[in-house]
């Protein structure tokens, strides 16, 4: 079992997807691969820890399995040992169902996917923490193979590709980052479906840095993402906190598969179960959370753009929307997501949300909501991002920063639409681009053709339209034309044309005139004459 560099770990995990890549879409095979990686992580970790409990710690998984089998079979010792193991690990995998034992079956050609299914089921039933965690792994799916034997073979091949790694050897940052890398790769392969589970890391970084500015040293920081996807945006908070182990994460996700992905992601980043409160549910349909805490230090959101929602009249009495007097339109839930997040923001908190540019200027109900937010001073900053930085859409997007209890109603506009590096078919925000945006946010000063602090009166004059070009003029005047140089250039071009024409005419005169070529030669002489 090897422990290589982070790059080797990333590559080994990604290569294991080759087995499934030809059989199904990336949005589907990610569930199998990420689930199997997590199962191996739990199995490897349990084996190494059990050897430590037996006071013969080893990182050799085969040796650890032998010790685990022996302890498990000892009638006098087994019950006490198992209870202690479950207490410390929160789960238990029988010796014959560990990843290492299943690999022995695979190598002996006796493996049956039902054994793996039982191992997954045992983990789910061991604790509420793992309940229904693997429900998206359908080991009987025809996409794995047309017959039970072919399905066995496919799963065996994936497990073989992972077998050379001891995932217990990697700390939470290394393995968690590798998991994030895989999710990013799946997003790149998934195209439009990527928006369901992934926010590009550079956008996550920007939003998190801004949301956590001046809160880096706060203990017990609470972070909330009501459209959390795979949890990557939430987990990014740990990178910008000096008290990362005390962060409490709150997240909700509608898609069950993606919700389970987020749960695994939390474990692989070593987030204590007590510090994570995640829920599978519809954020707009029913407000959550309603039990303490209900407001958070930081709210981070990348909701589905211009999604449909019910917008039923009953929501006018919902405290999230009631004070605005109108509801966002059924065809565009952008402001519904924004108002939900803002409702759950602490008075001294900060919210960062990614939205399409339409929220900045669309009228009717959205215009009324935008005006009300501006009158409150809720909208702190509007950042225009480049087009084509998300996997699921090529449109340019905006990050809106919101705060409560501000002393001013001005708005900082940053036009970062041209701050990117082209990489293949995507535009990427590099560290230098992120630093420029972040430093501009902190300084809150005008920068020609890049940033402007607009007063409330200025915004009011624009009828509360927040379209960025109204406030940041990025127009570049064309360089003055040197008329004399242009005249000389045209004269020289005319002389070159005349010279070439004479040469061609001389060549035409040398052509032999026949009945077939006479008309062509005459036409050429007329053009060149």
Task: Write a structural description.
With 529 residues, the protein is α/β, with parallel strands linked by helices. It has helices at 6-15, 18-21, 26-53, 61-73, 75-89, 99-107, 113-126, 148-163, 172-190, 201-212, 232-235, 256-268, 334-343, 364-376, 431-443, 456-461, 483-509, 518-528, and strands at 222-225, 248-253, 276-280, 296-301, 345-356, 379-384, 397-403, 411-415, 421-423, 426-428, 451-454. It is globular, with a radius of gyration of 31 Å. Belongs to the N(4)/N(6)-methyltransferase family. InterPro entries: D12N6_MeTrfase_N, DNA_Adenine_Mtase, DNA_methylase_A-5, DNA_methylase_N6_adenine_CS, Restrct_endonuc_T1M, SAM-dependent_MTases_sf, T1MK-like_N_sf. Keywords: Methyltransferase, Restriction system, S-adenosyl-L-methionine, Transferase.
